[in-house]
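Recap quiz, item 2
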Amino acid sequence: MKLKINGEIREFDRDIKNVSELLEALKINSRFVAVELNGRVIYKEHFEHTLVKENDKVEVVSFVGGG
Amino acid sequence: MKPLIIAGREIKSRLFLGTGKFPSPKVMAEALEVSGAEIVTVALRRVSFDSPDPTLSAIDFDKYLVLPNTSGAKDAEEAVRLARLARAASGINWVKLEVTPDPVYLLPDPFETLKAAEMLVKEGFVVLPYIHADPVLAKRLEDVGCATVMPLAAPIGSARGMKTEEFVRIIIEQANVPVVVDAGLGLPSHAAKAIELGADAVLVNTAIASAEDPVKMAKAFRLAVESAVLGMDAGPIEEQEKAVASSPLTGFLD
């Protein structure tokens, strides 16, 4: 399955069903992470039932040091 | 000085810290601790899957009021997008609004900042906008419901001190919301100067994070800010044109 994540195409050897599974596959702890799916912010409580499909554009962001 | 209350919350420390550019997460955590800061800023970026930023794990979200910024936003739309993502990531609805399309001086765009502020306030955010020291803009931002205004002392990271003094003075005189001097402070004395002008707080990042000894510098800024607050509370004397003798003018020898 192919997804565009943070500007790069990524191939997964299995199907990713939803946002929760995607973060798991990326080994990302969902605390302090936000996800935008095709330009729409997905809130944490919707991670599990927000479906991901082939060629979706995903942004995964979190906090870094800043002023 | 009157208590510093932002969006109904009393903030005891008048030194806010940025968390960028520290040599290590450990040094950052120590500097935050020593600074006594309650409010610390962070930025939002794409997660790097190969080398995640270690800063995040060194910030205690229970201890500090973490203030996400919208750095990197070049217009109102980008700033609003970043603020929404920051809220989704953390549940925090406070945002340091910065819209800086100019890559050389990182000066904030007043039109886009005002536009974004209006939208974010409507969406329930507590908005702390980073602005040029423009008293008219500060009033406009206050009118649309911003929780503070944060005028710059000098360009971000420039360490040049209170270059905007005369205009920050007017902002302070006219503001009904707290005024936080943000950006351009390089020395502890610059921070003290801002407080002595009547600013409610200062926000410092580069001057501490990029100092040779950030922990020591954090302490220096803390002491400077506390000293200035104490001095203001003590009731400073007024400036005079001419000398006013401090020794008696009688009892001289012939």
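Residues 180 and 222 of chain B are 15 Å apart (CA to CA).
The interface with chain A takes residues 18-22, 28, 41-47, 49, 52-53, 55-56, 59, 61, 66, 68-69, 71, 84-86, 88-90, 156-157, 183, 203, 205-206, 209 of chain B (CB under 8 Å).
End of item.
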